[in-house]
């Protein structure tokens, strides 16, 4: 499996928004759609088990979570948003307004929301995260680490380094979500992941994939995601 380093992931995004003519809105919409489809695969909606807690960080990963929540609402789920550090950026404000127009609740009571949910989307930190986890996210990640509720992580389990995986200590050191959805292409951290692994990058132009040496998976039907296996033929 070919991996996309942190530097190449950032460069690929820049190429998509320049030569590729994609807007940040488009890329976030495609990413959120992929996340929602991964959740649908691993936790199909069913009566009494359709509550989804989407925990959003302050950057693009959080924006992907907001988009995913909107799609999940239309699939029949009951999403709740925990967004401790919302940005004033106009794009994110519009995403929040779209959710409020659907009467999707925003909560500041993370602990109660976690206790009452059936599945969690971890959209706190993505591939660009580095350094120490600051509060309130340290406490939130520690709670996600300890919960028995199934979790889908967006692009990276929050607190993980894109190259070296989970931190040696502190929040996230033992964080292993049930599912990971890699956006555009897998990052090196997947070597440390043990769970169901999906890739969502069906929009990627073949020329860009070739430029970065990526082997795109065989997407089926109208799916925007595909479940991938490790080199030994087993599920990651």
Describe this structure in words.
The chain is of the alpha/beta class and 236 residues long. Strands 3-2-1-4-5-6-7-8 form an 8-stranded mixed beta sheet. β1, α3 and β2 form a beta-alpha-beta unit. α2 packs across α3 and α3 runs parallel beside α4. The longest helix is centred in the N-terminal third of the chain and has 19 residues. The protein is globular and about 45 Å long.
Features:
236 residues, alpha/beta, 14% strand, disordered C terminus
Q: What's the structural blueprint in terms of helices and strands?
A:
Layout: H1 6-17, H2 24-42, E1 51-56, H3 60-75, E2 78-82, H4 90-101, E3 106-107, H5 110-115, E4 119-123, H6 137-146, E5 151-154, E6 179-183, E7 196-200, H7 206-211, E8 226-227
């Amino acid at each position: 499996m070919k991996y996309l380093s942190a530097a190449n992931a950032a460069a690929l995004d820049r190429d998509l928004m320049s030569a590729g003519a994609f807007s940040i809105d488009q890329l976030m919409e495609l990413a959120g759609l992929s996340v929602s489809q991964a959740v649908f695969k691993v936790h199909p909606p069913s009566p009494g088990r359709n509550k989804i807690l989407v925990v959003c960080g302050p950057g693009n990963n959080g924006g992907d979570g907001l988009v995913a929540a909107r799609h999940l609402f239309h699939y029949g789920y009951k999403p709740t948003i925990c967004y401790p550090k919302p940005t004033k950026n106009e794009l994110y404000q519009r995403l929040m307004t779209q959710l409020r127009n659907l009467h999707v609740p925003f909560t500041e009571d993370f602990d109660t929301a976690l206790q009452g949910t059936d599945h969690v989307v971890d959209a706190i930190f993505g591939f660009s995260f580095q350094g120490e986890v600051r509060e309130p996210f340290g406490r939130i990640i520690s709670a996600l680490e300890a919960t028995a509720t199934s979790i889908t992580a967006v692009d990276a389990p929050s607190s993980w380094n894109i190259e070296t995986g989970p931190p040696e200590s502190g929040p996230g050191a033992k964080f292993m979500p049930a599912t990971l959805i890699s956006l555009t292409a897998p990052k090196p951290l997947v070597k440390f992941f043990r769970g169901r692994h999906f890739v969502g990058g069906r929009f990627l132009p073949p020329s860009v994939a070739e430029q970065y040496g990526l082997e795109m998976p065989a997407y089926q039907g109208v799916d925007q995601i595909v479940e991938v296996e490790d080199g030994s033929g087993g599920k990651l």
